[in-house]
Specification:
By secondary structure, the chain is mostly beta strands. The chain has one helix at 3-25; strands spanning 27-36, 45-48, 63-67, 72-73, 76-80, 83-89, 95-99, 110-115, 120-125, 129-134, 142-148, 153-155, 161-167, 170-177, 185-190, 195-202.
């Protein structure tokens, strides 16, 4: 084996070891959101707003939002910036999907049209913030997509609990979004072990 090949193999080994060490150091962020003046702590987005020095490529896999039994399912979805969402109609009636704004900017309103059962239409969300989903055909239908800036996010369960996995070590700001409560923020330090936090959101 030549000296240049040995040098290349050594460099690859160092990079691989660094990647393994970085993965080993990553920790989980666990916590609970308490909702005051709000009916439920379920379905609240919790996310890390930025990781200094890092950018994140758009995810390859698509996320699916169904229109089923005259409802958007799931009601709230969190996606990373750049994610393509497939809107599928599972009902035996025509459905429409539109949003009047993204992050309260009405210039980003968009109507995807109406389509029958069994079909789906994709849309790539490159703008951050909340996207209220509505249906022109059935005004009682509503849902939300929240577009987060990093892949480190979670959605609370019925008890308000959440887990964000494999967060690299560092100091971050975590934020919340809810359709019924004001946003909350909190500083957090992630090390190699799991970290627990408690947040409170209010009406």
């Amino acid at each position: 084996m030549t000296k240049s090949n040995l040098t290349t193999l050594s460099a690859i080994a160092v990079l691989a070891a660094g990647a393994m060490a970085s993965a080993a150091w990553a920790g989980d962020l666990k916590g609970r959101v308490t909702a005051q003046g709000v009916r439920s702590a379920e379905g609240i987005a919790v996310y890390i707003d930025s990781v200094p020095g890092k950018t994140f490529p758009a995810p390859g896999p698509h996320v699916f939002v169904d229109q089923s039994h005259l409802a958007f399912a799931p009601h709230v979805v969190v996606v990373q910036q750049g994610t393509t969402v497939e809107f599928k109609n599972d009902d035996n009636v025509g459905h429409n999907v539109y949003w009047p704004a993204i992050n309260h900017n009405h210039k980003m309103a968009h109507n995807m049209g109406t389509w029958p059962q069994g079909l789906s239409k994709p849309f790539t969300f490159n703008d951050l913030g909340d996207v209220p989903l509505l249906c022109n055909v059935h005004p009682e239908m509503s849902g939300y997509i929240y577009v987060a800036p990093t892949p480190y996010y979670a959605l609370t369960d019925k008890e308000g609990a959440f887990t964000i996995k494999n967060v690299p070590p560092g100091q971050y700001t975590i934020k919340t979004w809810s359709e019924a409560a004001k946003p909350a923020t909190q500083a957090v330090t992630i090390a190699s072990a799991a970290v627990s936090v408690n947040l409170t959101v209010t009406k």
